[in-house]
Amino acid sequence: MPAQGPEVVVVGSYIQDQAMRMANLPAPGVTQIGSELTLGCGGKGFNQAVASQRQGVPSLFVGAVGNDSQAQDMRAFAENERLLVALESIAGVPTGVAQIQVAQESGQNQIAVYLGANDKLSQKHIDQQTASISTADILVVQLEANLDAVRRALEVARHSGVTTVLNPAPINNALTPEILDLVDILIPNESEFSFLASKLFGKTLEGEYWNEKREDLLALCHECNIPSIVLTLGEFGSFVVHNRGASAFDNRAGNAKTQYTILDERDTYRVERCQVDAVDTTGAGDAFCGGFAAAFVRHRGDFYRAIERANVVAGLAVTQHGTAPAMPSKEAVDRFLAS
Known about the structure:
Layout: E1 8-11, E2 15-22, E3 36-42, H1 44-54, E4 59-66, H2 69-81, E5 84-90, E6 96-103, E7 109-114, H3 123-127, H4 130-134, E8 138-141, H5 147-159, E9 163-166, H6 177-180, E10 185-186, H7 190-201, H8 209-212, H9 214-223, E11 228-232, E12 238-242, E13 268-271, H10 284-298, H11 303-317, H12 330-338
């Protein structure tokens, strides 16, 4: 195991993946025969932790599992990755499961998730990890685990001056403004940001809104009152917006004000996607988030360099099948950037 403490802590979900590949995704009411079935380790939180660890940054995954064979598989995978884990075992509740269908031609996917033990992750278990969270450089959370526990993790990090990252996935109607108030860096995809716009501000975003209504998008990002937002757009790359006037930076946030510093020359810009041939887009967003967290630590908060590296981590991940097993190594990312 790593000799030093974790620099990246990921609090979130572990999901056992059941991935089936087929020619095209089935239409509603249509039964389609798959060509290949793969069982593997996944879940947004675990994928992000593996992505970070494979970039050579000591990482810790905090989550909940059942007392079953799926949990044993996860522990074995984590040990092989030299990834630290702090797991809450939930009696009588199975480990989470995802059913994934992947189209062979396009690499697109559709996913159904049963949260299982993830939904039982407790605040008590988070409090038991306070030492690790409070001494890390960055905390990453998502919305695929119990949100009370997610919020508690953000509180611990914020009060310790640890940079906080929220990937608001999957779309979860239980997300509250109070959780967003504890976030330094928000990383949604286009659908998740549309959901936030509707839920928080009653605004509807349709089509390629990031191209068609750029000024409205900028205004909405500032209205979110979060220091930094990275809108990931798949094949269209990513869109970065910094809000240097976010209330998290000033005394109105009281004891919970952030110590995060925006190290970026520009307030808004686009970054093109990594040019690769995708075979499976499942887990691309997780690869981006984990890659970003690791690069943010390695490059001492240099935002653009972290985005640049995260794009490559995500790009290389989609050239492989699966989720956690598809996360690329630091060496693979270095070779790509050097080419």
